[in-house]
Amino acid sequence: MKGAKKLKNEAILDYYILNGDVYSTDNMDIFNQIGFPSIYEVIRVIDGIPLYFEDHIYRMRKSAELLGYEIFKSNEEIINQISRLIKVNNSPNLNIKLLCSNLTEKNQIILVYFIESHYPTKQMYNRGIHTILFNSERKNPNAKVVNTSFREKVNEKIKAEKAYEAILVNSAGYITEGSRSNIFFVKDNSVYTAPAGDVLLGVTRKRIVALCKNVGINVVEKNVHVDNLDEIDGLFMTGTSVNVLPITTIDNKKYDSVNNEIIKRIGEEYLQDVRGYINLKKKK
């Protein structure tokens, strides 16, 4: 695409997969050929299993649909490419990126590769993390579209404030989501999160909502305004790399999220769900 920004050469390890074929990361010219819009998913690999693949590929197809496109490869073809990538790179426990470009053409580019992956430390789960507010809103929140300029701006702010995540606030002052996560608030015995139409429908978010309902924790899809942050008991972020991560501070506001019984219960239930999924896939 003429004049468009190019994708960052972010593939790591020895090999990546391009339309079903294995290529060495010594040659990453393909990254200079990818234009926008491009849609993607980041999938965590644990013990050789791409976690919640079905949910990720469903969301990726919905992202394409929201933009007026269609992914032509079948789920079976895509999972085979992911499985091959994991195998040729000796099954590392890292995140992979599944990217689809050339969306308007029949010869779409399906690119699968491992990316640099960072996971919270045990100390972060025990002490919670620092976050900041960031005024921004996505044009199409339900579609996971590559947006390099947004990512660069928010990363710069996160680094400057020594934060772990930036919590997005829209023009009306309502909190929507994190820059790379979904955000949940706890007040009394209920969990609050932004309505589905206002945020990226995270795979972990979907699991968390279902788990809460299964164990009798009330989930309310309602926007939280920045003026009401003093009223909440605690909060946490969710995402592919972070599971359920307690948030201790938003700017200068402090919360005892790590000791909140609801947040602890949700974290335990989610880890159990992950283990159950992996064990089930290993038996197949």
TrEMBL record:
One of its GO terms (molecular function) is branched-chain-amino-acid transaminase activity. It comes from the Bacteria. Its EC number is 2.6.1.42. InterPro entries: Aminotrans_IV, Aminotrans_IV_CS, Aminotransferase-like, BCAT-like_C, BCAT-like_N, Class-IV_PLP-Dep_Aminotrnsfr. Gene3D superfamilies: 3.30.470.10, D-amino Acid Aminotransferase, subunit A, domain 2. Its cofactor is pyridoxal 5'-phosphate. The keyword Transferase applies. Signal peptide: none annotated. GO terms for biological process: amino acid biosynthetic process; carboxylic acid biosynthetic process. One of its GO terms (cellular component) is cytosol. It holds the Pfam family Aminotran_4. It is an enzyme of class 2 (transferase). The keyword Transferase applies. Belongs to the class-IV pyridoxal-phosphate-dependent aminotransferase family. This is Branched-chain amino acid aminotransferase.
